Amino acid sequence: MSYIYNWKDGIKEEELKNCVKIIKSGGIVIFPTDTVYGIGCNVWNEEAIKRIFEIKNRNYNKPMNVLCSDLKDIKSLTLEINQKEEEMIHKYMPGACTLIIKKKKKEVSDILRAGLDTVAVRIPDNLIAIELIRKCGFPLVATSANISGKKDGVQIEDICTEFKDKVDVIIDGGTAKIGIPSTIVEIENNEIKIVRQGSVKIL
């Protein structure tokens, strides 16, 4: 059975504490971001990551992104951030830009990364998402809250039918502000490469 929390009018502290407790114990939470709703878990819990792949019917050769609350969170996942990458973070985050960083710490799950030597990170511009991450004290794995290949979830009605009772908590934060997934970029030879054009244009 899933908890359904209505945070349209603001975060409820006792429910937030319960979400954090659930995530820390390996649970799965659906929550709003600035782009679309995300389904997430503790970035350091590989069993929880596997569970997200299974819930979404997601192919294991597709990596998932990581949501962070600040630059410190991003640095906890990587061995090194070069100057260009840090400039991108300061310019486009918080916001709808996901940055693929080549060097990652060995503790970052191979399953999360689909075996690649990279990790994709983003700081969302959404208070609910940021507070979840901050209160947990670690980044969250996050991918769109939809069955793979289906439409991205932008409001709770898009999500509950498919995910109710498959996840531990569903947080209703109203309609996602942007409604389109983030733009994914990577720095190659000090140049910006657009991997996926999303809601933000990179200049």
CATH architecture grouping:
Alpha-Beta Complex
Oligomeric composition of the shown chains: single chain
* Proportion of beta-strand residues: 15-25%
Largest sheet: 10 strands, mixed
Distance between the termini: 45 Å
Low-confidence runs of at least 5 consecutive residues = none
Which class best fits the helix and strand makeup? alpha/beta
Domain tally: 1
Q: For the record, what CATH class applies?
A: Alpha Beta
Number of distinct helices: 7
Shape: globular
The CATH topology is: DHBP synthase
**How many E-type strands?**
10
Measured on Cα atoms, how large is the radius of gyration?
Answer: 16 Å
Question: What would you say this structure looks like, in words?
Answer:
The chain has a 10-stranded mixed sheet, sandwiched between helices. It has one domain (3-196): DHBP synthase (Alpha-Beta Complex). The longest helix has 12 residues, at 13-24. The chain is an alpha/beta fold. 30% of the residues lie in helices and 22% in strands. The mean pLDDT is 95. Helix 1 (13-24) packs across helix 6. The termini are far apart. It contains 7 helices and 10 strands.
SSE blueprint and pairings:
Layout: E1 3-6, H1 13-24, E2 29-31, E3 38-42, H2 46-56, E4 65-67, H3 71-75, H4 83-92, E5 97-101, H5 110-113, E6 119-122, H6 127-136, E7 140-144, H7 156-163, E8 169-172, E9 183-188, E10 191-196
Parallel strand pairs: 1-8, 2-8, 4-6, 5-9
Antiparallel strand pairs: 2-3, 3-7, 4-7, 5-6, 9-10
